[in-house]
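Researcher: We plan to redesign the surface later, but first we want a full-length starting point. Tokens attached.
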């Protein structure tokens, strides 16, 4: 990590922050420069291990910010316009405010929008679309939406 980090004073409270430009969103803070850098080190090591586990290249020092990449969502696009209706009626929000990849599951969204969790989400789907998704709940969202649609819900 060495010379590749940068640090500065925090703007709205006492202390410092440290970051590594090549690793977007890797930031730590502390009461001193040293503490901020010390707290950044394990985050950096964890990110390196994560990238290596996925066989992704590590950014070269001095190469600047990485361009973020997104998981594909073509399967989600194939269930439009049903996904728009589902998002409004089940989550109470617009699908256009969300990015849902082909591998996203309902569990992530349940934690954001459904106070009663999994059981409440399953009950909402059954009440609105007449389909029990208990057996499919943990499958990717595009799969669950196709099942609901095929079983008469969409």
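Model: Full-length starting sequence:
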């Amino acid at each position: 990590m060495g010379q590749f980090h940068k640090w500065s004073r925090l703007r709205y409270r006492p202390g410092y922050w440290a970051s590594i430009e090549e690793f977007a969103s890797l930031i730590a803070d502390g009461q001193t420069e040293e503490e901020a850098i010390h707290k950044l080190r394990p985050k950096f090591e964890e990110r390196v291990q994560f990238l290596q586990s996925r066989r992704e290249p590590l950014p070269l020092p001095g190469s600047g910010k990485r361009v973020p990449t997104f998981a594909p969502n073509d399967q989600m696009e194939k269930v439009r316009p049903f996904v728009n209706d589902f998002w409004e009626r089940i989550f109470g929000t617009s699908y256009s405010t969300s990015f849902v990849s082909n591998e996203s599951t309902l569990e992530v969204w349940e934690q954001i929008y459904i106070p009663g969790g999994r059981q409440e989400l399953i009950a909402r789907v059954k009440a609105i679309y007449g389909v029990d998704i208990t057996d499919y709940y943990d499958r990717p969202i595009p799969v669950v939406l196709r099942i609901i649609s095929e079983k008469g819900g969409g």
